[in-house]
Amino acid sequence: MTETADAAGPPAYPMPRTCPFALPEQYARLREEEPLARVLLPTGREAWLATRYEDVRRLFTDANLSADRVHPGFPALLSGQQAIDRRGFLPWMDPPEHTTYRRMVISEFTVRKVETLRPAVTRTVQECLDRILAGPRTVDLVQELALPVPSLTICELLGVPYGDREVFQSRARLMTDRNTSGPDRLNSLVELRAYLHGLVLRRQAEPREDLLSRLAVRYREAGVEDAEHLTGMALLILVAGHETTANMIALGTAYLIEHPDLRDTLVKDPSLVPKAVEEMLRYFSISDHSTGRVALADIELGDTTIAAGEGVLLSNAAANRDARAFERPEEFDLSRESPSHVAFGYGIHQCLGQNLARLELDVVFTALLARLPDLRLAAPLAELPFKNDTIMYGLHELPVTW
Amino acid sequence: MSAPAVRRAVVDRDVCVGAGQCVLAAPDVFDQSDEDGLSYVLVDPLPEELTPSVRDAATRCPARAVQLEAGAGAGAETGAAAETGTGADPAADRQPTGPSPA
How confident is residue B102, by pLDDT bands cut at 50, 70 and 90? Predict the structure, then answer.
């Protein structure tokens, strides 16, 4: 039988990529012909997929779209998310709860506050590079640089004592390793949560000069004496800031290796690294699969109505390559003026840690290009294990040599 | 003609979510409070040469909390509306709360 469009029903989502640095091919067609399209989720449910920049921004700011993963209409890509303990998880909250808890933590992530972490991040990056340069000349950059940098940065941020960092690191590593079995992965999450819970109790009893202590005080002042909720917030900071940044480091490094002209430009003029980081954020848009919403009321978009209870996926990757918003969107272009991309989302849930991510990526690529300018892939690009099967796009491993 | 219209940059601190986009776009105009992390305006009225950076900040602000007010009593202009020409920007309906932190 030949499949026809009608018989086939809506296309399956997530959609496959044919090139690791390109978007799924169907995005371009949908953006032009069907900017709000029906798609079939892995769970068997259907949802809407928005692919135009203006539509995506408009929907991200629509108060009638809920981020509540527990809502029965939420367009989940995985089953079982409803069972996760969601206390403290800002990205899954709606106002007024979201407003209350986001406001408790905003002052920890201001542009100025994040900048004070630069010396610590720089030290972490240089120590990772010292170890890499002292070892065998082929390494997995994901394990040796991409994961340790954000993990140790979060330790620094949360105030995890030095002596506890190996416990923290090993559990965080298990959680992100694809070879970890399902039960072991869940177990490492439970152990991390238990560790953070203990740390929260200690800081509640005896506050220090760190983020968790300050949060404990703010929670108390707001009348929230809930250690579990605060533990959830700490876990969120870890989860949201760990694998995301690691994926950007791995993808960015692979991209720079595959684009020697760009790499040479940055080696010659490291002041362009922040521009390159911004363009990597737009170009990779790794959170494309984590921007679902569910409609709480009917929403009109053009000629289409998203009915109350229906799920919507806001493709920030498709939006970030919309020619209506970006000239020559398929080009990696260091001369773009303003980073108006939606790689960190848009609306009230826009990534709170985005300026920390920018800082980490700036420090990593600046140091990497200075100390290992001749880095090469140790396996063909086509054979690298890109994360086509996870919520965040990235690389499971990045074997490199020099 | 009289002098150019006086403009003011305004942050609605009731809707600010502390993403820091305005500080990145217009560091001479906006800062974030150490106390609560919310943005506030450093210069009022707005020097003419800083107007483009405030438009940029308004476009990038995820909460649409940044506005460019054209003179006393005139309507607010958001960067998003200015760029796209859409009149349906929800931010245009809001009343700004003023340039300095509460």
Answer: very low
Question: Domain-by-domain residue ranges, chain B?
Answer: 7-86
Q: Do B18 and A60 touch (CB under 8 A)?
A: no
SS3 state at A127: helix
Alpha helix locations (H) across A116-226? 118-134, 141, 148-158, 165-176, 182-205, 211-221
Q: Tell me the residues of A at the B interface, defined by beta carbons under 8 Å apart.
A: 54, 57, 60-61, 102-103, 106-113, 338-340, 344-348, 350-352, 354-355
Alpha-carbon gap: A58 to the closest alpha carbon of chain B (Å): 9
- The answer to whether the Cβ–Cβ distance between B18 and A338 falls below 8 Å is no
Note the ipTM here: 0.90
Shortest alpha-carbon distance between residue B24 and chain A (Å): 8
Q: Is the peptide bond before A96 cis (omega within 30 degrees of 0)?
A: yes
Instruction: Answer yes or no: CATH 1.10.630.10 is held by domain A10-401.
Output: yes
CATH number at B7-86: 3.30.70.20
Task: Give the model confidence (pLDDT) of B34-80 as tens digits.
Answer: 999 999 999 999 999 999 999 999 999 999 999 999 875 445 555 44
